[in-house]
Please model this.
Amino acid sequence: MTQEQQTRAFPQGRNGSASDPGELAVVVMSGSSRGTRLVMGDKLTIGKSRDNDLVLTDDTVSRHHCELERTDDGVLVRDLGSTNHTKIERSVVQEATLAPGATLSVGSVEIRLQSGPSHATILPSESHHFGEAVGRSIAMRSVFGVLERVAPTDGTVLLQGETGTGKDVLARGIHQYSTRNGQPFVVVDCGAISYNLIESELFGHERGAFTGAISSRVGAFEAAGRGTIFLDEVGELPLEVQPKLLRVIESAEFRRVGGSRPMQSGARVIAATKRDLEREVQRGKFREDLFFRLAVVPVTVPPLRNRREDIPGLIQHFMELAKKRDPGAAAHTLDDASVNALCAHDWPGNVRELRNVLDRSIYLAATTTTAQIQLLDLPVAPGAGPGHFDPSRSYRETRASFERDFERRYVSWLLERHNGNISASAREARMDRKYLYDLARRHGLREKN
Model:
């Protein structure tokens, strides 16, 4: 669109001011017009023809593709009989109402609705990879876009998101694309270390600092040198240790436990958590000043159920990894029905759960003569849903059976995540350690020593 067209179509905000905080804009996130931002009046037309308000020259866009209209309920999107459709996420729409922040696809061009005054927009990455992380969805490419910008800097990054979304993989990607990639990458799992040892794990200790300290020990900050230290599940960090972490981030200085000599730290900090740290701050469980120091660049990693279009790519990626581990796995295939079943599942364990299901199925397929991978124990297996209950069993018997199955699978999954560590598993599940131990015994599961 020319400057003349922009002035004619969007002379002012909805309330008469181009800087009105209630203004709405459209931002083109992909395609040849990537980066274009236009303030919207009451109506906006989109298409390839030059008489549209927003002109997109991509081949997948029709001459008059769709129009947007502001209403009291949001932005009404109407498809104008386009060839390649107007979509919201993966759904084709003829007419739908969107809220600010939503993304729609005009052909293959992605457009985001943006509210508020004009500000800098970090566009989604044009790559479908960031290190070992994989994602074609705009949600993941938006994450990649931010991390591509921040990786070469020394900025502290806080990765937030559910368990299994790939925060650790993204942290390694940040280190890989930083100027520190030749230095150590040190991981500290704050949720898996005993409370009385976490300070020593971070900062090291001197001989005789506490009972059992028979020699000096180097901590994570010292071991990282000028590399990167990744604090996984930082939300589990005890309150009494948090001021010491804050001090080393702010002053780049720390002391070993039991030591008096100050030591310098040149490490970059990346943290990750499944907890809502802002809520933890309000509850008094996490220091506000430490939160702000960690969240210099906050990034929220979306759950897999909100980006199902990434699942086929992840399946392909994990099968390629299986082939590298075992060339014999190259003979195994996954049919379309199985891929569709995987895409339909909500994946409460996210990418980690998807990988575990695929790895287990590939290993078992290696023991058979068939090349077809069978998805054993897939949570959405036929027969598990409504209409597939056993009519010979009572309500109480059916419920008890489902509860036993849930307990067994959940406890098995939980212990597997923490290598059989009952204490770490109980902390993550927020349940009593003894109760979890009793559940594990009841279902024939054992803590790994």
